[in-house]
TrEMBL record:
This is Glyoxalase/bleomycin resistance protein/dioxygenase. Keywords: Dioxygenase, Oxidoreductase. The keyword Oxidoreductase applies. InterPro entries: Anthracycline_SecMetBiosynth, Glyas_Bleomycin-R_OHBP_Dase, Glyoxalase_6, VOC_core. GO terms for molecular function: dioxygenase activity. It comes from Actinosynnema mirum (strain ATCC 29888 / DSM 43827 / JCM 3225 / NBRC 14064 / NCIMB 13271 / NRRL B-12336 / IMRU 3971 / 101). The lineage of its organism: Bacteria, Bacillati, Actinomycetota, Actinomycetes, Pseudonocardiales.
Length: 125
């Protein structure tokens, strides 16, 4: 294995959800709901870029609703500004944020009820 090839979500309306991710999180998804990120284009020595695969217990509440089987974790460069912008656009933003050795974390919820984790990495991550 050499890395994670993708993250896949079920969507009731893929085109509408792709438009939401484009408009509110800046993810350049096409109308079919796909985008490919190329780390070599954005990685630097101080910010090498990483992708993590992590398993959680079946009864975790970290993802939000019990039926949510996956959660996106999106790297952001200014968490506070993004959360403010999302709130201004009427996006559901969870009040809790978390600071850790890995960086700062916040969460929002997409129109289909999926909790999305927003991560401002600590320097060097």
């Amino acid at each position: 294995m050499i890395g994670i090839g993708g993250i896949f979500l079920r969507a009731r309306n893929p085109a509408r959800l792709a438009a939401w991710y484009r408009a509110h999180l800046g993810i350049p998804m096409n109308d079919r709901g796909t985008v490919t990120f190329h780390w070599e284009e954005t990685a630097t020595r101080d910010n090498p870029g990483t992708t993590t695969l992590a398993l959680f217990a079946q009864d975790t509440d970290y993802f939000g609703e019990p039926g949510q089987r996956a959660m996106l974790n999106l790297r952001v460069d200014d968490l506070a500004a993004l959360l403010d912008r999302l709130r201004a656009h009427g996006v559901e933003v969870l009040e809790q944020t978390e600071d850790s050795e890995y960086g700062r974390f916040g969460w929002c919820v997409d129109p289909e009820g999926n909790r999305v984790e927003l991560w401002e990495p600590a320097r060097g991550m």
